[in-house]
Amino acid sequence: MNNNVANKIVVITGASSGLGAEAARHLAALGATVVLGARRESRIKVLADDIVAKGGKALAIETDVTDRASVQNLIDTAVKTYGRIDVLLNNAGVMPLSPLEKLRVDEWDLMIDVNIKGVLYGIAGALPHMKAQKSGHIINVSSVAGHRVLENSAVYSATKFAVRALSEGLRAEVKPYNLRTTVISPGAVQSELLNGVHDEVTAEQLRNFVPGIAISADSFARCVAFAISQPEDVDINEILFRPTKQQI
User: Fold this and answer.
1) How many CA atoms lie within 13 A of 235 on its CB side?
2) pLDDT tens digits for range 191-231
3) Which end of the chain is flanked by fewer CB atoms within 10 Å, N or C?
4) Count of CB atoms within 10 A of residue 26's CB?
5) What CATH number belongs to 9-239?
6) CB contact at 8 A, 248 and 152
């Protein structure tokens, strides 16, 4: 049975670990060709080799989503290698939470550069190809924090609210080109995001909360596959999911 994932060319940013890596494994197992982008080149090469060893198709390309030319190279290389891009998964993200009063402005800038501008650079790179093809699917990753603002998450939430706004605006604009758009908002899912929290008080709060409820990254991978696998006339615009145990 055709799952509508098989044979698709899927470009994934932030593919070196966590949600991106698990999505790559899952989609490759369903027959997609995955093009992996991340700053940690050695890790995506290991992941690509593992996927290929299991019979899948994968290509690793070092990518910094804060650099527009780097993102453009990722997408253009995918198109040059495989002839098209069917899906862009804008997954790269960072989450250095802290109270605003700590004035960790460099971390605010990083979240804006990765979580917002990185998504925009992905859209800018993929959209011309998809318009020309009159087909394609852009999937952006927001968060539960893009639906509600919690203590110490003001800037992170702002970036994830922005991803949802960008996704809705994109959805409205690409109808003439037969494109699909999805925004996925995970709750507490196992990833390396907590490693980027450098404010000790906030980090301790998260360590006391997240590990006890977090679900595995394959939950995210299944949501991505679900959105892609729908018939081409079905556009899954938004998925919000949490662990069953998560209250907020």
Assistant:
1) 17
2) 887 888 899 999 898 888 888 899 999 999 999 999 999 99
3) N
4) 19
5) 3.40.50.720
6) no
Active site residues: 156
Please name the residues in contact with 136: beta carbons below 8 A apart, sequence gap of 6 or more: 85, 86, 87, 88, 126, 129, 130, 177, 179, 180
Would the pTM count as exceeding 0.90? yes
Query: Measuring CA to CA, which residue among 38, 42, 34, 32 is closest to residue 15?
Result: 38
Cβ distance 77 to 26 under 8 Å?
no
Q: By three-state DSSP, how is residue 59 classified?
A: strand
The residue among 9, 10, 15, 129 whose CA lies nearest residue 64 is 15
Q: pLDDT tens for residues 62-88?
A: 999 999 999 999 999 999 999 999 999
Name which of 96, 129, 101, 137 is nearest 114 in CA terms: 96
Question: How remote is the C-alpha of 137 from its chain's centroid?
Answer: 13
What confidence score (pLDDT) does residue 1 get?
37
Give the chain's length. Answer: 248
> Which stretches does DSSP call E strand in the chain?
9-13, 33-38, 57-62, 87-90, 137-141, 180-186, 238-241
Rounded distance, CA 174 to CA 106, Å?
A: 34
Asked if 67 and 116 count as a contact pair (C-beta separation under 8 A), the reply is no
SS3 state at 141? strand
Residue holding tokens 């907020």?
A: 248
Q: Quote the CA–CA distance of 117 and 21 in Å, as a whole number.
A: 21
